[in-house]
Amino acid sequence: MRFLQADYLFPLHSPPIKKGVLQVDKFGFIIGLYTPDQLSNIKIEYFPGIICPGFINSHCHLELSHMHNYIAKDTGLINFIKKIKERNSFSSSEIQDAIRKSENQMIKNGIVGVGDICNTLDTLKLKSKSKLRYYNFIEVFEVFKNKVDFTLSQAIKIRDTFKSYDLSANITPHSTYSVLPELMKKIYSIQEGVNSVLSIHNQETKEENQLFKFKKGGLFRWLSSINASKDIWENYSCSKEKIEKTDTIRHLLVHNTFSVKNDLMDVYYCTCPKANLYIENKLPNYSIFNIEKLCIGTDSLASNDSLSILEELLVVQNNSDFDLNSLLKIACRNGAECLGFENLGTFKIGKNPGVNLITNIDKMKITSKSFIKVIA
Ligand SMILES: [Zn+2]
Measured in angstroms, how far is the CA atom of residue 341 from the centroid of ligand 1? Predict the structure, then answer.
């Protein structure tokens, strides 16, 4: 049994505790939370800094890790998507090596759960033995009518293989502009169970808004040039019209860089600030989001130089009014709630969420010198 104390303890299901003490058993399960005056004659381990639960990386593409430094910065989403198609021009050992190193980086950076986008089975081997919790989003996109059934059947095969290894997996649409309405309908019709989550790239570029609203812009021109079906945009005036809200499916809309207040629904949103800066050199307007439902992710190493939630938080902090408790909810609790990681996200008694120490906090602000250490 260990008693861990820091300058502030952030349980996240209850308010922060000054000089709070966290009791954990040898497996990391939370046994108790105390104010310092509640304990005497007990060996307490004190750490300068703050203590919070393990982080949830709500949006990642682990299988793209080998594309680190491959795509130039600030060249826009359409260019990025075109370059990502070169993902297969690497050897399988390069791909596997990069996946392994990236997961190690996430573990070192205090990440305990991941919402991971998969187009392949490349990460299966690692995940089948991993100590991290993964929600695997098997992503589909298809803009040609005659290919819809084939594309979906391939994705179902990948989903079922993940499931046969006892890993959670669900089919999800890539975005509203890359999926035909009939495919979208089919994806909704095969959602099963109470833990069904869809992760959809949303309003990552202004060209997505232009496509639906005005039927013009770079995305419109590109989709038209490859003879994509007009059904994708013709009868819609914005992205959210393509999303079916139901009571049983949770939605996680990712990026939202070009969203305005009017676009938002009562769903979970995920921000990936460093990837937004990398691809479009633009950040979302953080004042529009409900902080109880905002999550955070690193996206892949194809559009980031690290997989660190702490670094992402620093960018959000510097571009929003969020206080430290809100930032940590975004980093831990909200993602765990959205992805159904019921054991993670807060220091509620009985959970096993991991324990992160963050040092070099200045007046309750994360700084560029802040450092993360996993302490339980
Ligand atoms: Zn993504």
Answer: 20
Q: How many whole angstroms from 21 Cα to the centroid of ligand 1? A: 37
Ligand 1 mean position to 61 CA, how many Å? 6
Domains and CATH numbers, the chain: 2-52+358-374 (no CATH), 55-344 (3.20.20.140)
Measured in Å, residue 202 CA sits from the centre of ligand 1 at 10
For 155, the enclosing helix (H) or strand (E) is helix 148-164
What spacing in Å lies between the alpha carbon of 60 and ligand 1's midpoint?
A: 6
Angstrom distance (rounded) from CA 99 to CA 101: 6
Report the alpha-carbon distance of residue 17 to residue 15 in Å, rounded: 6
Does the predicted TM-score (pTM) go above 0.90?
A: yes
How far does the centroid of ligand 1 lie from the alpha carbon of residue 8, in Å?
33
Q: CA-CA-CA-CA torsion for 102, 103, 108, 109, nearest 10 degrees?
A: 70
Ligand 1 center–CA 78 separation, angstroms: 13
Q: pLDDT 10s digit of each residue in the chain, 376 long?
A: 999 999 999 999 999 999 999 999 999 999 999 999 999 999 999 999 999 999 999 999 999 999 998 988 988 888 888 898 899 889 999 999 999 999 999 999 999 999 999 999 999 999 999 999 999 999 999 999 999 999 999 999 999 999 999 999 999 999 999 999 999 999 999 998 778 999 999 999 999 999 999 999 999 999 999 999 999 999 999 999 999 988 889 999 999 999 999 999 999 999 999 999 999 999 999 999 999 999 999 999 999 999 999 999 999 999 999 999 999 999 999 999 999 999 999 999 999 999 999 999 999 999 999 999 999 9
